[in-house]
Amino acid sequence: SNLRMSGVGISFGNSNAYISLWRGERSEILANSAGERSTATLVGHLEGELLTGAPALQLSSRQPANTVSCLKSMIGRSLQDITLSQACKLEQHNDEIIVNFGN
Fold first, then answer.
1. Secondary structure letter of residue 94 according to DSSP
2. CB 28, CB 20: distance < 8 Å
3. What does the alpha-carbon distance between residue 2 and residue 8 come to, in Å, rounded to a whole number?
4. How confident is the model at residue 76, as a pLDDT?
5. Relative to the CA of 27, which of 11, 20, 71, 102 has its CA 20 to 30 Å away?
6. Residues 88, 96: contact at Cβ < 8 Å?
7. Helix (H, G, I), strand (E, B) or coil at 87
8. What whole-number distance in Å separates Cα of residue 66 and Cα of residue 62?
9. pLDDT tens-place string over residues 18-59
10. Sign of the alpha-carbon torsion through 56, 57, 63, 66
């Protein structure tokens, strides 16, 4: 048959995320903007700048209070979950989630 299949797969893990592209008969894990095939699933904040991936991972060892690494744990959970809100320093304002870095 001349039918060619294609698709995208996303693996969102506790520590890394991967995106794979399926074309024809093969799959390839795509590289991020830094050329890496895996992206750390962290978000950090430093001097007004939002960091994701490897820069956030580097920040987490120096300033853990400015980094959120429990992103996968947030999926499907209520902000009223006291364990989640304490661990991730979350507040809810209207329909937005605000992550409080630091105090």
1. T
2. yes
3. 20
4. 73
5. 71
6. no
7. helix
8. 9
9. 999 988 888 899 998 889 999 998 888 888 888 888 998 999
10. positive
Q: Does position 14 have pLDDT exceeding 50, yes or no?
A: yes
For residues 84 and 3, give the distance between their C-alpha atoms in angstroms, rounded to a whole number.
Answer: 46
- Alpha-carbon distance of 94 to 92, in angstroms, equals 6
pLDDT digits (tens, 9 = 90+) for 55-101: 989 998 888 878 877 777 777 767 666 666 565 554 444 444 555 54
- Enter the DSSP assignment of 101: -
Q: Which residues contact 80 (CB under 8 A, 6 or more apart)?
A: none
Rounded average pLDDT over 4-9: 82
DSSP structure string for 25-86: TEEEEPP-TTS-S-EE--EEEETTEEEESHHHHHHHHH-GGGEE--HHHHTT--TT-HHHHH
Residues 81, 97: Cα–Cα separation, whole Å: 14
- Count CA atoms within 13 Å of residue 49 on its CB side: 7
